[in-house]
Structures are given as structure tokens and as C-alpha cells.
Recover the amino acids of this structure.
């Protein structure tokens, strides 16, 4: 079956930074499952269905990538998927504390589930979903920072022209 990693997140929306982590993940794993947490704590801009659609379009030409969503605990989903690890990206030192806490909690919940961290490419280090949404909301051009489908959906959502 090969080695499988689950890359979880809210992906509201997916950015080129996330894509970079997936690409790097595919060098270590045969399959990367990009999985949207349905019970996230944030109030999302896009529905689960919209986020799934954007992810599917983004990764449609990458056969090693599978797009999915899950309810409940991440570690339980990892077991259900028979995955080998959780994949997370690190952008800056500021990510570390949160990621460290989450990885340790996940290990406490299931000691057999490992977390693998990959450094996001330098050019994406300043990008987050929130900053993209904020820029798009006020008509900022997000091209080159998010996949084309996301650019289009942001324009539709905010009714702004980014030509
Ligand atoms: N490039 C660009 N942005 C990135 C990024 C990268 N490589 N890596 C992270 N980010 C951004 C995200 O866009 C997001 O930005 P935002 O805060 O502006 O929305 C932020 O960093 C972190 O979000 P994300 O990576 O999506 O993670 P999250 O914190 O939203 O999700 C879950 C956390 C879903 C993985 C976690 O809550 C979870 O596992 N939930 C399931 C329930 C569970 O098991 N809980 C116990 C876990 S300890």
C-alpha cells in the first residue's frame, strides 16, 4: 500500500504554502491525504464542500494526493486511514509552540501516531489563510499566492475584481 501521510488543517482556503508542504511530503510518502477537519474551532469563510472542491481542483493532476474531510479526533482518522504519520508544515518559529503542543497531545491520545514536520519553502513563509482572506476582502490581488481556483472563489465571495 506504500507509506501514507495525513495532512490535516482547515484549508480555508488552501494556499500555495500548503501546496508546497504537500509537494515536499510526496518526496517522503507514497500518498498524502489532505484532510479538512470538519469540527475545527475557527469560523470558516468557505463551506466544507467549497473547500473540498478547491482542494480537488488544486491537486487533480497529482495522483499521489487524496482529498478528504474528517470528524472527530485526528488520531482516530489517521488510524482509520491506516496512515503512517501526520504531516504538518512549519513556517516560522512562531508556529513551533502550537505545533509542538498539538503533536504532543496527539501522541498522548495515541502513542503510535507520529508527526512529521516539513519546512515550508521560504517564499511562502509569510502566507496564511487569514492574511489571504483579508487581502482579498479589500480587493487585493492574491494571484501567485493561492491556486487559481482559490483566486476565482475569493473574487466570487467578496465580489471584488482582481484583474
Ligand atoms: N502555508 C501557508 N499557511 C499555512 C501553512 C503553510 N505551509 N501551514 C499552516 N498555515 C496556516 C493556515 O493557513 C492557517 O492559517 P489561519 O490561522 O490564518 O487560518 C494556520 O496556519 C494554521 O491552520 P491549519 O494548518 O489549517 O491548522 P489548524 O490550526 O486550522 O488546524 C487541526 C488544526 C485541524 C489540524 C486540528 O485542530 C485538529 O487536528 N483537529 C481535529 C480534532 C483533534 O484531533 N483535536 C486534537 C488535536 S491536538
Amino acid at each position: 500500500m506504500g507509506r501514507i501521510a495525513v495532512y490535516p488543517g482547515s484549508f480555508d482556503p488552501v494556499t500555495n504554502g500548503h501546496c508546497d508542504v504537500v509537494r515536499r511530503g510526496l518526496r517522503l510518502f507514497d500518498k498524502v491525504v489532505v484532510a479538512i477537519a470538519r469540527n475545527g474551532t475557527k469560523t470558516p469563510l468557505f463551506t466544507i464542500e467549497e473547500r473540498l472542491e478547491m482542494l480537488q481542483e488544486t491537486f487533480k493532476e497529482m495522483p499521489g494526493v487524496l482529498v478528504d474531510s474528517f470528524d472527530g479526533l485526528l488520531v482516530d482518522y489517521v488510524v482509520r486511514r491506516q496512515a503512517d504519520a501526520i504531516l504538518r508544515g512549519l513556517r516560522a518559529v512562531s508556529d513551533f509552540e502550537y505545533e509542538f503542543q498539538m503533536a504532543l497531545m496527539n501522541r498522548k491520545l495515541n502513542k503510535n501516531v507520529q508527526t512529521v514536520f516539513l519546512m515550508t519553502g521560504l517564499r511562502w513563509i509569510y502566507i496564511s489563510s487569514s492574511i489571504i482572506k483579508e487581502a482579498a476582502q479589500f480587493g487585493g490581488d492574491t494571484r501567485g499566492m493561492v491556486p487559481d481556483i482559490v483566486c476565482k472563489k475569493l473574487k466570487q465571495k467578496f465580489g471584488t475584481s482582481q484583474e
